[in-house]
Amino acid sequence: MVKYWQQARDNIMNLPLANGWGKKHRLFLKWKYMEAKAAAYYYHGLILDEGNTEKSHAIAIAALQAADEYLKESKRACEAFNSSIPLSRSPPLWGSMKYLSEKIPKDASRKVRINRDPYSHEKIMKTAPILPDFALALKPDEYQLPPVHASWNEESINNGQLDSNKPKE
Questions:
Q1: How many angstroms separate the CA atoms of 40 and 64, rounded?
Q2: What band does 158 get if pLDDT is binned at 50, 70 and 90?
Q3: Most exposed of 5, 49, 150, 157 (fewest Cβ within 10 Å)?
């Protein structure tokens, strides 16, 4: 998910979204990208914590703390998204993010308490392990839009050419 949201973020920067919705779209992508990174670091941290070495536990702690930081950043991005024009209501958490918003802070603080290793935000992001690089599973198919139907032609509508469905007087 991180790669897909990253691609979306990178590609939207190249689009001319000057109709007022551009900022909202960019904030949405930032929000979802941060959520994906939080989830990725959380699960990566859990996998690393399964290791039997002290180093794997230290890296797991760094990953869980990074997940917590990305979760906080995603909440800020969500607030920014909802407060940008046009205003929207903040949706309630549901699904995997509801679960992760409860688990990430709890597991991250528990691991730090166990190991008595307080980190600053800068140190967390510097010591966060690199996420494994998996090949993308989905590739979009080429798609051609169908031709515009004649009913979309304003002149045809104004001239009454497409009024064949109207009852005749």
A1: 10
A2: low
A3: 150
Q: 125 lies in a domain?
A: yes
Q: What letter would DSSP give residue 164?
A: T
- The phi, psi pair for 75, rounded to 5°, reads -65, -40
Is the separation of the CB atoms in 33 and 54 below 8 Å?
Answer: no
159, part of any domain: no
pTM assigned to the model: 0.67
Within a 10 A sphere around the Cβ of 34, how many other Cβ atoms? Answer: 22
Tokens 């699960």 sit on residue: 43
Number of domains in the chain: 1
pLDDT, tens digit (0-9, with 9 covering 90-100), for 1-43: 888 788 888 887 777 766 667 788 888 889 899 999 998 998 8
Q: Which domain holds residue 50?
A: 2-140
- Rounded CA-CA distance 17/128 in Å is 34
pLDDT > 80? residue 147: yes
